[in-house]
Amino acid sequence: MENDKIINKIKIIDGKIIDLINQRMEQIVISKNLNTEDYFSAVINNPSEDIFRNSRILTEQEFLQRVYREIVAEGEMIKNKNLKMIAFQGEHGAYSEAAAKHWNDDLVPIPCNEFAQVFEGVESGKYDYGIVPVENTLGGIVSEVNDLMIHTKLHVTGAIEIPIIHCLVVFPGTDHREIRDVYSHPQALAQCRNFVSRNKLKPMQYYDTAGAAKMISEKNQGNSAAISSKLAAEIYNLEIIKESIEDYEINRTRFLILSKEKNTENGNKCSIVFSAAHKAGSLFSVLEKFAAESLNLTRIESIPNQLGNYAFFLDFIGSERDAKVQKVLREITEMTMNFRLIGCYDERKIK
Hints:
Layout: H1 2-30, H2 36-44, H3 61-80, E1 85-89, H4 95-103, E2 108-112, H5 115-124, E3 129-136, E4 140-141, H6 143-151, E5 155-163, E6 167-170, E7 181-184, H7 186-191, H8 193-198, E8 202-205, H9 209-219, E9 224-228, H10 230-235, E10 239-243, E11 252-259, E12 269-275, H11 282-292, E13 297-306, E14 309-317, H12 323-335, E15 337-345, E16 347-349
Parallel strand pairs: 1-2, 1-3, 5-16, 7-8, 7-9
Antiparallel strand pairs: 3-4, 3-11, 5-11, 6-9, 6-10, 12-14, 12-15, 13-14
Helix pairs in contact: 1-3, 2-3, 11-12
């Protein structure tokens, strides 16, 4: 029994080591011009360097230098691959990262603290792509993202909709009968309200689902659990007590892929944003244009933009290369203010 506890602790420590190595490699990918050879010469080959002063009696400096030589060499190989990045909001293991992996598993997912940092990073060229949630079947629109979409110059180059499957996760070896508190994002707690109540758990709000999983892993809280994605459980080496604990089966989130460059392929869906004139029937007149050409609208959202002014988001099935789509876009450009074609792209739905 004691050995099992020690093995679980070692697993968690190993997970932290791997997580830190991955974080280091992410910085190599982000800082494309970083000269790792100079770092290797100045730091790794210098026994008196600060990073080795924390080595303890069980860890010889020569061993640490061997390990870091391998890490630096691996970082150099990764840098030379010229990998492309996709930024997301949240900790590793967030549902946005899961969606990014579904979209393109070759892209390196980079976590950001705020949605604004995703937009800013892509706009500046720091990241190649960004992925942001725009709406959830239960929670509705993501207001902050839609606000940012009004003003950004970025293009939507793709969209993906995935099921949100919540898992109850714990530190390995935790007795599920001892669980008292469950941590997660307020929206996730709300979506699992019946499960939490039925099992007499105390909901504890946390800033992020993946962040809650990470906290449970780091603090080894034996009487606590988190609600997170399966990906987060895998990343932080947590045990999944139960999957699919959400109250409703139909729980899906739609994400947009952002890029500085316009999509050059023939997409199957278009997104536009505009402001309508302050007079009765102005929005209806726009919608009439789509109806006249039998273009199927899949989303209509109004977002407060300025005092007394609204921005309207419309998504519709079609390609900007189609003659009837071009006709409608020309007509509504003349009827509206601040019109912008956000993107024409492919949308995928993951079952």
